[in-house]
Amino acid sequence: MSAKPGREAIAGPPSDAVAHDSVDRLLASWQETRPDLDLAPVAVFARVNRLNRTFDAELETTFSEYGLNAAEFYSLVTLRRLGEPDGVSQRRLMRALNLSSGTISTRVDRLVERGLVTRDVDPADRRNSRVALTPEGIALFERVTPAHIATENRLLAGLDPGQRDQLVDLLRTLLVSLEGTSPEPTFPRLGFTVAPAHVTMAIRRAAGLPETVGLIVRAVEPGSRVEQAGAMVGDVLTHADGRPVRSIASLYAAINNATEAGVLTLDVLRGEKTQVTLRLDVASRPGDLPVPTTIAPPPLVREHQL
Q1: 55/61 Cα distance (integer angstroms)
Q2: Contact present, 111 and 75 (Cβ < 8 Å)
Q3: Mind listing the pLDDT tens digit for each residue in 4-15?
Q4: CA angle 172, 211, 202 (to 5 degrees)
């Protein structure tokens, strides 16, 4: 008998597991109530949410031992990481922590009151401030950071090194897809912008088209390689050299593998059901590599520039 929709989401644990977890029990309960629902995504999101709550609680306990909360700790860490001798622009700190101007001002105020940072007028822009760690702030960072890392290692103790690496790879693939990317410094500039799979599906649904997993083309530069190959705005890249394109990571891998041959074959869905095959020139040429990026793009860019 075939499994009901969602049954695959509540299948037993892998052979080396010792028991079902709380999410397995949750899904089993829903299976009894609504067997028609495909609960596969819930199996992911529920576990991520429960892990996040556990991680946050454990880390907050560690931070509190040093008189900090998570927000204050990450502010100190960011200031130490950026490490500019004369302090960090408050505007830059705001961007690095992805906070509003009001929130960053309040946070810096608290750190100044505690003597952990100083805030002075930025000589390059008197409308802005520069924030710097004090000796006390640096000393506190040096004490709390090893404890923070030790707590994280303890929370991951249930995974062996290979499992950690596998989890990192999966999380990276998903995060890169959701955040967006700038051109990879090792690839030739192809001249187009694509949106990730979840945005692609939403755009097609809004346009009354069947949802399709792939990367939708959002912009094509005139005269670019991708325009010469025949790509159009609205095309959905579904396969690259015969392999599915579900994420930007899979497209990057296909480009990398095709660089030596110089040509990448792209299968494209155009409109509702028109299938098009494009042959994209990906051969390296002197002077056409993009400028390497040294900082991650802002969160929620949701597009990829190639």
Answers
A1: 10
A2: yes
A3: 434 444 444 554
A4: 65
**Residues 185-231 pLDDT 10s:** 667 888 899 999 999 999 999 999 999 999 999 999 998 999 999 99
- The DSSP letter of residue 7 is G
Alpha helices in 180-264 (DSSP H): 197-206, 225-229, 248-258
Three-state secondary structure readout of 164-189: HHHHHHHHHHHHHHHHCECCCCCCCC
Q: pLDDT digit string (tens) for 144-184? A: 999 999 999 999 999 999 999 999 999 988 888 887 776 56
Judge if pTM exceeds 0.70: yes
Residues in the chain: 306
Instruction: Give the three-state DSSP class for 130.
Output: strand
Looking up tokens 């030739």 gives: 188
For residues 90 and 101, give the distance between their C-alpha atoms in angstroms, rounded to a whole number: 9
Amino acid residing at 215? L
